[in-house]
Amino acid sequence: MAASAARRAVALRTNIRRPVAFVRKIPWTAASSELREHFSQFGHVRKCTVPFDKETGFHRGMGWIQFSSEEELHNALQQENHVIDGVKLHVQAQKPKALQGDQTSDEERDF
Amino acid sequence: MAALLRPARWLLRAGAAPHLPLSLRLLAGGPRRPHAAFCPHAARAGRVAGALLSQARLYAIAAEKKNYLQEEATSSHRRNTSQFDWALMRLDNSVRRTGRIPKTLLQKVFDNTCHSGSRGGNQALLLLRSCGSLLPELKLSERTEFAHRIWDKLQKLGTVYDVSHYNALLKVYLQNEYKFSPTDFLEKMEKANIQPNRVTYQRLIAAYCNMGDIEGASKILGFMKTKDLPVTEAVFSALVTGHARAGDMENAENILTVMKEAGIEPGPDTYLALLNAYAEKGDIDHVKQTLEKVEKSDLYLMDRDILQIIFSFSKAGYPQYVSEILEKITYERRYIPDTMNLILLLVTEKLEDTALQILLACPISREDSLSDFGSFFLRHCVTMNTPAEKLKDYCKKLKEAQMHTSPFQFTLHCALLAKKMDLAKALMKALKEEGFPIRTHYFWPLLVGHQKEKNVQGIVEVLKEMHEIGVTPDQETYINYVFPCFDSVKSVRAILQENGCLHEDSIFSQAELRIEAVNGNLDYILSFLESNTLPLSFASLRGSLILGFRRSMNINLWSKITKLLYKDGRYCQEPPGPTEAVGYFLYNLIDSMSDSEVQAKEEHLRQYFHQLMEMNVKIPENIYRGIRNLLDSYHVPELIKDVNMLVEREKTDSRKTTQPTSSDLESKLEKLKAENQPIGDVLKQLILMLCSEENMHKALELKAKYESDMVIGGYASLINLCCRHDNAEEALNLKREFDRLDSSAVLDTSKYVRLVKVLGKHGKLQDAINILKEMKEKDVLIKDATVLSFFHILNGAALRGETETVKQLHEAIVTLGLAKPSTTLSSPLVTLYLEKDDLPTALEVTIDCYKKYKILPRIHDVLCKLIEKGETDLIQKAMDFVSQEQGEMTMLYDLFFAFLQTGNYKEAKKIIETPGIRARPTRLQWFCDRCIASNQVETLEKLVELTQKLFECDRDQLYYSLLKLYKVNGDWQRADAVWNKMQEENIIPRGRTLRLLAEILRNSNQEVPFDVPELWYEDEKHSLTSSPSPVEVSLQKELLNACHRKKDKDAFNIFLKAKKQNVVFNSETYASLINLLLMKDNPTQAVQVKDFAETHIKGFTLNDAANSRLIITQVRRDYLKDALTTLKTALDLEQIPSRIAVTRLIQACALKGDTESIQDIQKLVNGLEDSIGLSRMVFINNIALAQIKNSNIDGAIENIENMLTSGNQTMELQYFGLAYLFRKVIEERLEPALEKISIMAERLANQFAIYKPVTDLFLQLVDAGKVDDARALLQAPTVKSLLELIPELTEKEEAYTSIMKSYVLDSDVASAKALYENLTAKDVKLNDLFLKRYAVLLKNAGESVPFTEPPESFEFYAKQLKESKENPL
Lengths: 111, 1369
Description:
The complex is a heterodimer. Chain A is of the alpha+beta class. Helix content of chain A is 25%, strand content 24%. Chain A has helices spanning 2-12, 32-39, 70-78; strands at residues 20-24, 45-49, 52-53, 58-59, 63-67, 83-84, 87-88, 90-93. Chain A has a four-stranded antiparallel β-sheet with strand order 2-5-1-8. Chain A has a two-stranded antiparallel ribbon with strand order 3-4. Chain A starts with a helix and ends in an 18-residue tail after the last strand. The two termini of chain B are 94 Å apart. The interface between A and B is large, with 44 and 66 residues.
């Protein structure tokens, strides 16, 4: 009983919001290095993942770019067209998985 | 389905209408034409499909009603219905969107239909209808084969065919130009006792005509006439084709006249038959003439018709006329799918050049350069093995025509998908020539193909190919695609070298390293890193290393590797340097773990951090903060202080001057204070910083110093800090101060919860409840996590057996409405008694919960225990209650699960076979999840087995759960058995079940024997959470049980067993065991457990009480050094050891004459004396005693005299009690010392008027029975003067009793009388010994006794007095 409750808690774990872009429709010819190269024009790319399906040897056309800051992510999202190898990518901000609760901490208040 | 079924149906009814309106003709498109390659009515299909779908649904509902009582059929039928809907929808969608059906889709629907329970006629029809022109990508012969396969298979499976099926088959024959004998076909129908209908005859005529057999056609036609069946346009059109194919164009042309005579006006179909006939002859002129004729009439040929003429020309070998006909095409948008289908068909027929010609003629808008057209063509060319040279040419042309932006890449993609190595090679070369880069991952699909077959030679070839084309395999290539093909990584290097395809040794080595890391082979990593000479970036290794760390829990290796990377010049010496790199690594390590994983491995991590600290590994402050946030969000704030030790403090980061250090802030604070400026902000900042540095002591000191300048934020942070350090007292004080500062201020929810936890843990129940009340009053946000925390607080207390805490806190939480009394939240109430094995109460509490809150917490566990203990009456009671309150079914399920859980399968079977019981999906799922969570394979298997015949049981769901458990255990054999069982039970596995099964098989390198349903958006995350193994869990539980039952021997044996198996429990378990062992006075074993826990969980710490107990035990065992160490450890952890523990240690040291240790302790506890409750006299007495023991009597006396006579006295005289010292000196018979002390006491009394020592000594002497010495010390006059000087002394029981004794010994009746009167006047209560003595004295002196003489002997009262002193009430 306790174990299942604990698992539920895991599900509740709030995602720390990170500046991550979710990219779809990546052409098969491009892998993470191409993506990284493209997106580094908007800022420092901390992490770039394009997961490959080890069953097929191809990726699934999706990837994630983590920037260093929200601002850089914003830059990337501002750009209308992202084209790699002649293919237009779909870029959007990664939605946080769970809403965070109370944002202001009591430690911030001074009264 | 509409698109597929409607034409056949319509034809059945349409016999009477010889002439069709255009719209209907469109709808009926297919059947009219022998070559019809296109599916029509794309536009209408949707609407009609909708209608049919709802019809299907109606049918399903009706069937459902009918089948309701046929128990087994219902659920499976429902599923079949929905599966049919699904198949229908997919095929229909495909036809609507593209005018065709991909072969794989049809195959899938077919397989699905075969596996499903019922194969209705509709489904058969649907499948058969799809095997004709809707499959342009298949060769004609293949299509027919497919149709036959379906036909035979479904027939075997029991599908009953009717005439519609035969007609559909005929249709397929016609579309596929299949040569067959119509008479045989009729015979076949006859045998099956199916009456041919008009449609049958019509199609048979067409079949004859296609072969040019007019005679055969006439025979059927005659037959139709005798049957008085109407001859329709379709028949005439067929005859046109028939005559033409017989080579008689004249008669073909004549048919049109015949028609008109028969009163049927030739329509487009007839003209199209004629046009095709001319086209097949290559007669472009007649085609043109006929086309003109049609144009002049009011008839109208559609693009699709024109396309067919083109097909006829090219198939007959006249591609030269294609372009002329193409001009006639209007390119209506809705015919694009038809065009595409023609192109595909042409490719299938190896007429790729014509196909390209048509493709290039397509008026595709080229405005948007990003949209490509022609991919379908290229893909199909690849499938049909079009030569590479041709394909390259096509690609070029498509690119030139700007129809496709990346035809080469696309074609390469197709070639890779189809694993056509040679084509791929050619295309890559072409790409390179065109100036495109060839990337490493292009070769992965090829490697995958070989990898699956473990084809080493194939792998080697691809690697050679890569080298040839100038691509270097990267680490991913090796790790993901090369290594898996080999049995061991070690053999790879040899084989590749042998074959001369190991060109970049360093990349290979790194890949090798990473794969070993991923496999958790940390030994290898360490030795590699130690011997490595190649440049290697830590960053590239990080991900694999993290996986490796999580795979292997060998903390020593963790630390060694980390240290090596940190310290060794080869690794992270370049900027940003090792501190940053290792810090980031630690952050990533923790980030990669889930909360539950971190929670489970808390002790391991602690040990790791401690080892790193000892190795002097540092991390930057900012990364520490990131880790802290992570740990906080994982609910393991206890680890924060352990990470904090690693923070690099001395080096202030020059780049981040904005971040001042705590000492900066402190000096700033003092400066501001000195300048009399407001310090609130800086103070708060400093407090927060100290809190984040976990420096509680300093933070509290600061608070005390600047109390008046404290703000809410500082207090909030401090409270939290104290809670983290388990300091309930201080936390509570701070909370009060916080309230005084601003009674309306609100803390964060988590801080309130932590307060409640700490207060509850320390038995401050009322305070904890007050906090809860405040939460309610201030309307603090209660999140799900908060409720969960409440549960953990209660559960923790329940496991510790703190009945009152659990009850009161639960009551408060629920009545305040902070949380609903859920099953989970209330379960600790029951846990309390379950842990104590008090089953009657446990059951009572559960029932009580139902009465109060309508929930039955832990009823399952209660029942299980009752069954285990065979408590029949209680089981009956529980069952009666559940049955009455929640119904019989619930009761049956409860009982069923309890029997299952306890392994009473026979009983469980009986229960689940109760007539009338039906499936309750949520309850079944609950039990499944439970089994999965606790890894109970047998129990779950039994559940699945026993519910086989359970009414309405979702078998797939249960098997899915079972598979999930097998996956956890990596048990592919059992998973494979499930696959068979499901087939045996005739269950249609859902897609996810198949996928799961496939995953299990693949993970164990097994062949997957079925087509895995595709999933488009698959979650890539492979979580590697390693929860504690079942062995660990069960041993731990056993151990804790033994602890709760206070069975120290059992518990210790379990510990030894676990130790042998190398099982490490969590620290709480060890703490419980140690507590028990100490309580049972078994210090040797306790220390053994402690040592084990310490060596296996580095950060392992005992709590205050345990450490105190340990100290006491160690003192008793005379391990004074160890006891001192324990004390140090406890104090380092900011624990408050108990007074008695410290005192015992000091006393023991004193008796050993170990002055130094006592002084050490004095320094250690400096400042904590009050919290411990330690009197300074303890040190004074014991240091003196130690000195005396060391024969330094003079030194001791000098010290004491100095303390008492020097001006700055630290103790008030009346508290300067030396009784302990005196008693010990007497007890230990330290005669010389006693003498000197007596002198000192007298001197102090005589010269300095300090009487306390002399009084103490006197009392001790009397107590010790050294009456003479006492008398010598205190002659009666002295006593009198003493009494005068310190009158309150007489009121002390010890004093007056002793004085009376001395009077009695002196037979001093007068003094005794005076003393008695004095005391009675002051209403002092006199003890019996005193009275007895006085009475005897009076009697001996012949005087009367003014009270009743106590009747018993002296000894009796002496003993009584002594006892009462020892056990004060």
